[in-house]
Amino acid sequence: MSVSARILASVLGATGVMSAAYGAHGLRGALAKDPEVDKKVANWSTASHIQLMHAVAILALSTSPKAVGWGALPAYLWAAGSTGFAGALYGTAFLKAGTTTRRTVASVAPFGGMLMIAGWVALAIV
Predict the structure, then answer these.
(1) Largest CB tally within 10 Å, which of 58, 116, 122, 125?
(2) From CA 36, how far away is CA 31, in angstroms rounded?
(3) Cβ(23)–Cβ(49) below 8 Å
(4) Cα 29 to Cα 38: distance, rounded to the nearest angstrom
């Protein structure tokens, strides 16, 4: 698992840094006329933070000799969860409030959060 986990952590880390940079330097300008700009920028920051934090956790787990078989489960849960959670927050930044599309995209975030929590619980169990 160590090679695949390192690749997974690298992809999540690299895209997390890119997202954080865009959130810090470009997002506010792209959303300048949006009345929810402050909330969306804050959500974007949270998403990139969560994504980066879980990339580091996956990288750390990849160094463990126990991260094979069921021992790899936390990494996969963290990857799926942080992708779902962060992806939902990134996506809602560009969708108009009150639309069905935005509600649908936003509804993915809690499931992503549950997967991340399950990953931390799995770490304690496996």
Answers:
(1) 58
(2) 8
(3) no
(4) 11
Q: Note the pLDDT tens digit of each residue in 20-42.
A: 999 999 999 999 999 999 999 99
The pTM of this model reads 0.92
Tokens at residue 31, please?
């959303």
Here the contacts of 26-32 (C-beta below 8 Å, separation 24 or greater) are 27/93, 30/94, 31/93, 31/94
Q: 3-class SS at 36?
A: coil
d(CA 13, CA 4): 14
User: Rounded to the nearest 5 degrees, what angle is found at the Cα of 113, between the Cα atoms of 13 and 73?
Assistant: 70
| CA-wise closest residue to 19 among 40, 36, 44 | 44
Name the DSSP class of 51. H
